[in-house]
Amino acid sequence: ETPCFVVDEGLLTENLKRLKYVSDKSGCRILLAQKAFALYPLYPLIAEYLDGATSSGLFEARLAYEEMRAKSGKRPEYHIFAPAYAENEIDEIISLTDHMVFNSAAQLKKYGSKVKAGGKSFGIRINPEFSTQNRAIYDPCAPFSRLGIRADELKSMDTEGIDGLHFHTMCEQRFADLDATFTAVEKKFEPYLKRIKWVNFGGGQHITADGYDVEGLIALIGRVSEKYGVQIYLEPGEAVALNAGFLVSSVLDTIKNDMDIAIIDASAACHMPDVMEMPYRPNIISAGKPREKKYTYRLGGNTCLAGDIIGDYSFDKPLKAGDKLIFCDMAHYSMVKTNMFNGINLPSIAVRGINGKINVLKKFSYADYKTRIG
Question: Integer distance in angstroms from the first to the last C-alpha of the chain?
Fold first, then answer.
């Protein structure tokens, strides 16, 4: 039945092997960023290759603590960063995590001693004020950013007891961007690098993408670790599940309004919000660019939003109701960002095992919609 997300365990494992190669060769520790991929039935597999998980809030922290246990018995690390922590959640968060990262002097002053009393490590998120991308929505170094402490502000802060620095400034970027970013970090924050225990390079590096300079990354980690005597952390999200999943959908109807249009049971607004936020055009198996093949269609979702458009694609044959369309690279972010606008049901979630068998893990229903509202 469609729509359905299908995560391929074999493809996911190939990404995990590449990430483990980086950690084994460099000595860094690599954490799953749950904000991108939170399919917890696969956490035991992930924990065999990665060193733990990082969270963006209490619920993610609970999920990692409860579900990320390696079959080998090794104990993962649990980290967290949030722009601000709520007072009624802080005690539980401390109990669930090993490392906490603060975003402001006020939050550090308010909760730092409590974190230390709990026997946990804490650091601060810094803003190196060095942008390597042109997407403002994903650029925490843009003017007026609410994310990270700038070097001039840090000079006036009490940094006693801080164990580490954290920066996360990239999105789908290559090693050269990270290399240039760390040069900026060194220039602005070197005095602090000399007296801390760890540095977290954040996520956003496309480590598992074709052409990524893995050896360059390993060399940088080694240089920084040796120079400053610090433990390096990476927090990939997209890189963990890159190209490891699909969204299978069906054509519901075809219409014509100066061009051919197909209405499908998957929605950009509900099921693929990054298509509208980035924006980007996901690939479809056996489909081409507009007019590349004989029949071109605009694909739209089944909601009332006029802009619920996935994109224009061409096909070898005319589309008809019941045809299956398979969208690529849908394991990361899509599943964690889905919503039920218009009362549209969520796609089922399935895993294709190493043996090729598909196991449906979750189906959604009216009850899921109703209980979200009241």
Answer: 28
